[in-house]
Design a protein that fits this description.
five-stranded antiparallel β-sheet; about 50% helix; about 700 residues; alpha+beta
């Protein structure tokens, strides 16, 4: 039953209840926002994009903002990279946000909290502000632990902002949290990228990678280390790797490792390992200590490399050097080498014996120190000529021996260029003093004979005026004159024989010695397979210089006719041509002949054509490489010289003025064959010659 005394609520009570209800709703909203903030601050994020999206959404809910933008800064391009943008209840990833002409530029420029009312009027060219009808703007930079800007955080409203203090407090709280989290996420991302690079490096490195503690206890090995040893990762872990070390090298490897740890220096050692097959391989191990938070090293990280080929090459090189030293020390010729300053850097044992000096009295000494200024000037002139002309030179030098006696030497000097660019002068000499003395005696005898002939001729001329009774005496004198003339012819013949003997001695003496040295070194060429490029270059340079010396001596004896063509055939002659006059790395030679030898005329023509074509290619084509192909197909032999140079237009070339190309065609025509020259501008040149194989 309704109480008649109860009065209806007044307007004041209704207003009070409405306010209470509004406060309860507001309190519930604050509680919900507080729970959302607490939930956000307790979450742990692993990726930057989701974190920025959650930050934008949470901040928008807390500040009841219409728009929130948050993102990382790209200082070089002056943009916010792919920012997270909250708008109308949805968070999306926007395109790069250019800072120029926007309120965000003020935030980054000032590195502090910024509040801008009537922001559209102040930044009329910002499309985001104009399109979204923004009125109020607050923002704060995200700074890393060193105070450098990482990005920015900004909130926007379409109406004037009422509680500026609350906005600044909330924004500061979120900015601090966002900066720390963003810095951590980027640090984690950089760490993951670094670890990925390390794993990629370990897998791609040509050497084995490992990690050990200070005891040598292995905690990590790469797959290359497993492949190198043929053992599993588990077998190599711990101290298992020591079981691979050769028993004779275990103690040394342990001691080297221990000393590296004690002295806090990098570990470096070379030792042998024994594979499961019993094969012994040389390896080079290197490691460096990496420290932890304390001064004590945390571990060693290093690499291991198979150096068996290098070790074998070093052993082979030492054997070659020993054989070379034995050869030179037992040679009848003296040999020496000087550096660019004229100091001797090498002398063989015959040199020491002939001049009665030791290593200390020769090595490092100049001609001036050994022979005095007069002799030194003449020797220096010959050395300078060798270096200036860059070829071998044969000359006669006169030097005093230890007893003061002047001796005459036939010397072959040649240039030597080391891989590092140093230039040396090498020399091989034989003593021709006795031969010179014999030549002097022969000259004196000839002069005496000429004097006697002159005297006798004068006597015969006077006898012509005598009477008839003197005819018998004159005939006797003429008989004596004929006898003397016969003796003169014999002496002259002997002189020619001596000159021919000297030519034979040049061929059978120094040329044979240098040829023997060349053959000896060439036979050892395969022993240095796998050696470093610097060993190949030095070895090939020495071979080239010996070949130049032989070529110069043979040119002096035989002229321009290539002896190897007569002695060995076409293929060796072309190989010698390439090796002696061109770079074998630039000119490549392929051959396949059914017959070991062709007719001399055919070999000579093919050799001259090949020589002319290679010379033209190297001189005019500007090609990085030239290919020579020699093939025999039944009754025909085909020679091709191909380059990848600048080429030319054959239709516009006047072959009548190209003597080399015209000579190639004429040689081929005379032997019943034909020549084809195929070229185009920018597409190289191909010279192809086909000749019949028959008795010519």
């Amino acid at each position: 039953m309704r109480n008649e005394t109860q009065q209806p609520p007044t307007a004041e009570i209704r207003e009070l209840r409405r306010r209470i209800t509004a406060l309860e709703c507001e309190l519930a909203g604050h509680r919900q926002r507080a729970e959302r903030v607490a939930e956000f601050f307790t979450l742990s994020h692993t990726e930057e994009r989701p974190f920025l999206a959650a930050l934008a959404e949470t901040l928008a809910i807390v500040l009841e903002a219409k728009y929130v933008i948050v993102g990382g800064l790209d200082c070089q391009r002056n943009v916010i990279q792919a920012p997270a943008i909250y708008s109308h209840g949805t968070t999306v990833t926007g395109s790069d946000y250019v800072l120029a002409g926007t309120p965000c530029a003020d935030i980054i420029g000032n590195l502090r909290y910024t509040c801008i009312p009537d922001v559209r009027q102040r930044f009329p060219h910002d499309p985001l502000l104009a399109e979204s009808n923004i009125d109020s703007f607050v923002g704060m930079p995200l700074l890393d632990s060193k105070g450098a800007p990482l990005g920015l955080l900004a909130a926007m409203w379409t109406a004037p902002l009422v509680d500026l203090h609350q906005a600044e407090s909330v924004l500061s709280l979120f900015a601090g949290r966002a900066a720390r989290e963003l810095e951590r996420l980027r640090s984690d991302q950089a760490l993951r990228a670094s670890e990925a690079r390390f794993r990629t490096l370990c897998q791609a490195a040509p050497t084995g990678i490992y990690e050990c503690d200070e005891r040598g206890f292995c905690t990590f090995v790469s797959t290359q280390w497993e492949e190198m040893t043929g053992r599993s990762n588990q077998d190599l872990q711990g101290f298992g790797w020591l079981e691979l070390v050769h028993p004779d090298d275990v103690a040394s490897a342990r001691e080297t490792w221990h000393q590296a740890f004690l002295q806090n220096r990098p570990f470096l050692d070379e030792f042998r390992i024994v594979l499961g097959t019993g094969e012994v391989r040389w390896v080079r191990a290197a490691a460096k200590q990496i420290g932890g938070a304390t001064a004590k090293p945390a571990s060693f990280v290093g690499c291991i490399e198979d150096i068996t080929d290098r070790k074998q090459a070093e052993i082979a090189q030492r054997a070659i050097e020993e054989r070379f030293r034995a050869f030179m020390d037992n040679s009848p010729a003296v040999a020496f080498m000087k550096d660019g300053a004229g100091r001797r850097v090498y002398a063989n044992r015959p040199y020491m014996q002939r001049f009665q000096v030791g290593d200390a009295a020769v090595l490092g000494k100049t001609d001036l120190e050994m022979f005095g200024p007069d002799v030194a000037r003449k020797l220096a002139a010959n050395d300078e000529r060798v270096l200036a002309e860059g070829r071998a030179v044969a000359t006669v030098e006169t030097l005093p021996t230890a007893d003061g006696v002047l001796r005459h030497w036939l010397v072959y000097k040649f240039p030597v260029e080391a891989p590092a660019g140093e230039r040396y002068v090498g020399g091989v000499a034989i003593d021709i003093t006795e031969r010179r003395h014999a030549e002097d005696e022969l000259r004196k005898a000839r002069d005496e004979l000429e004097r006697r002939v002159a005297d006798r001729t004068s006597s015969l001329t006077a006898a012509n005026d005598r009477a008839q009774e003197e005819i018998l005496e004159r005939e006797s004198a003429e008989a004596a004159l004929r006898t003397e003339q016969t003796l003169l012819r014999r002496l002259l013949f002997r002189q020619e024989a001596e000159r021919k003997l000297l030519a034979y001695e040049i061929h059978d003496g120094p040329v044979q010695y240098v040829t023997a040295a060349l053959m000896h070194l060439e036979s050892a060429h395969d022993a240095i397979i796998g050696a470093p490029p610097v060993v190949y270059e030095s070895f090939d340079t020495a071979l080239g210089l010996l070949r130049d010396t032989i070529q110069e001596a043979r040119r002096m004896i035989n002229g321009l006719q290539p002896m190897v063509l007569d002695e060995s055939g076409l293929v060796p002659a072309i190989e010698c041509l390439i090796n002696d006059h061109f770079d074998s790395q630039v000119v490549r030679f392929e051959h396949h002949l059914r017959s070991e030898r062709l007719t001399p005329l055919l070999e000579g023509v093919l050799f001259r054509i090949c020589q002319e074509a290679i010379t033209n290619a190297m001189k005019h084509s500007q090609s990085p490489a030239v290919q020579v192909r020699l093939r025999q197909d039944h009754a025909w032999v085909r020679l091709e010289v191909i380059d990848q140079g600048i080429g030319f237009d054959p239709d516009q070339r006047n072959f009548s003025n190209s003597f080399g190309l015209r000579g190639i065609r004429e040689r081929a025509r005379l032997l019943g064959g034909h020549a084809m020259i195929d070229s185009a501008p920018g597409h190289g040149t191909r010279v192809a010659v086909e000749l019949p194989v028959r008795d010519l």
